Amino acid sequence: MNEKIKYLRAKAMKLPVTPGVYIMKDKHGKIIYIGKAKALKNRVSQYFGSQNKHTVKVRRMVENVDDFDYILTDSEFEALVLEASLIKQNMPKYNILLKDDKGYSYIKVTKPPYSKISAVLQKDDSEADYIGPFTSSYAVKQSVDEANKIFKLPQCAKVFPRDFKKGRPCLNYHISRCMGVCTGKISEEEYAETVKEALDFLNGDIASTVAALKRKMNACAEALDFENAVKYRDRIKAVENMKARQKVVTESNEEKDVFAVASNAGDMCVAVLRFDKGRLCDSEQFFFDGENNDENLRRNFLMQYYSMRPVPRLVLLDEDFEDRELVSQRLSELRGVKCSVTVPQRGDGLKLVNMCRENAYEKLAQRKGRKGAEIRVLEELKELLGLKNTPEYIESYDISHTGGADNVAGMVVFKNGKPLKRAYRTFAVKSFEGQDDYGSMREVLSRRFNEYLKHKDENEEEGFGKMPDLILLDGGKGQVSAVKSVLCEMNISVPVFGMVKDSKHKTRAITDNGGEIAINANRAVFTLVSEIQEEVHRFSVSYHHKKHISKSLKLSLTEIDGVGAVKAKALLNRFKSVKAVKAASVDELCEVKGVNRALAEKIYEFYNKGE
After folding, report:
1. Average pLDDT for residues 143-157, to the nearest whole number?
2. I want to staple 607 with a disulfide (CB 3.0 to 4.6 A). Which of 39, 102, 373, 582 is the partner?
């Protein structure tokens, strides 16, 4: 706890209710956070009030604040511009910080004869020619790959003419992706012409490339050179097929950037897709861990990003934020003409945002060694239930009994959306006999969290010492209410919901102790919740059957004079079934702990007296 909180709050309460920028400093006078406010007093005083309302990152920042300074501005817009400028100058620890580590890319053309075209990040050959530099390595690589495929240029490591006829042609030749220079059948003149066509394609637009190829095709056809006419026809087809694929991305020729954020357990990925003339021309991802993400992520990200990149005509976002109009005004100033910052609700814009979001989740998942769909469904479940944290560790409970007898419960665990079977647990209900699902749930959850209180300081990754992110009960609002009352008494704060079934015992909805939350519209969430409900039901019923059968077997054995519950259990542990006990000899029965020869003979006679 910061000992200077009272002093800092008192100082904040004296600030004017006007726009400005506040500057947080640590005990060494180093700037650790910079923010802007519409009303300085209101914004800054929030930091030094109740810490329970803050994110982990903000609490950590506040703990390190020794003092703060501020600069008044005439408007909130001026505060926004000043904030961005000061962040760039000072690079504070607790602001999001973008590093412009994006290098330049070149198209490399090796010296003739038999030049090769490739995408490179630096000029590493003084004898080669280079086209560039380009800011987008994605666009350069994509364009070079397209040119090599369309014009069937070799992409192998062979050097020509040195490696003519040395070994068989590679797979690319056999699937018509390479003209087969290694066969020695392609002359220098023919190859040089093909390279020139490929470079014309890279330097010009698709329409002029197709027009030039058509002229050559027609000339060959008139000269009855049908072999080369077919070659040009195939190149034209390849270019036009590529053009058709690209048009699917977006029909609009408007220059635009698309942004989307994926988050998981505090970590975030901001994905950026840049479009020009309907083509995806660049793709970038920026990652922020749980300690470095920002509560004003989208605003601060855009302000920093466009201090390093050109501003487009249109910016599409996945979610709205408070200062969007101010950011749009600032980007328009930087561009010199109007820049619109919007959150599309339908049409092609929404499709592009969804595509960008999928990329963000996939990139974040790869970074965490998981699949994008796994992270996405947990984030969707978080949003659907209104949770504060991503439910990475979910516990689910179900009660099973036969007409109120042999009450048991099963607990299953799903970690990162997958069953964690080594963390499953079973409970035999002990406090009462008879049918009372609510009472059973209360007992089970009470026992579970009493174990948590014993082990919570051990920082367990799983088991009773681990606090779940979410509890799902197989039942309705009655079960939820019963469990919530127990957790409230124990001062345990965990979100609790019930999984409701329809008349066919299939998952229908999720409920708290109020209304129901429909989940069937979200296929991924519906599938996950259904899987959890089916698994906890299967596990609890399976345990109940085992317990019931074991009890029935013990009752059979306890009919024998001198055999109680303990000896019955020992016999079943040794022989596994009543049938095996019946088949055992007296000597074999004597091997069981607690069974003397006299009792062994009684057991033997009980099962074999009629034989």
Report:
1. 83
2. 582
Beta-strand pair 314-317/256-264: parallel
Number of other residues whose CB lies within 10 A of the CB of residue 384: 16
Cis peptide before 495 (omega within 30 of 0): no
Do 5-90 and 558-608 agree at the fold level?
no
Q: What digits encode the pLDDT tens for the residues 552-587?
A: 554 566 677 777 777 877 887 888 777 787 788 888
Helices and strands: H and E segment counts in the chain: 20, 19
Class of domain 5-90: alpha beta
Q: Please report the pLDDT score of residue 248 as a whole number.
A: 40
What does the mean pLDDT of the chain come to? 83
With residue 63 as reference, give the H or E element that holds it: helix 56-63
Say which CATH superfamily domain 558-608 falls into.
5' to 3' exonuclease, C-terminal subdomain (1.10.150.20)
User: How sure is the predictor about 247, in pLDDT bands with cuts at 50, 70 and 90?
Assistant: very low
Residue 292 has pLDDT above 60, yes or no: no
Domain-by-domain residue ranges, the chain? 5-90, 105-249, 256-369, 383-548, 558-608
Superfamily name with CATH number, domain 383-548: UvrC, RNAse H endonuclease domain (3.30.420.340)
Q: Which residues pair with 417 in a beta bridge?
A: none
Amino acid 205: pLDDT: 58
Q: Taking the CB of residue 547, how many other CB atoms lie within 10 A of it? A: 18
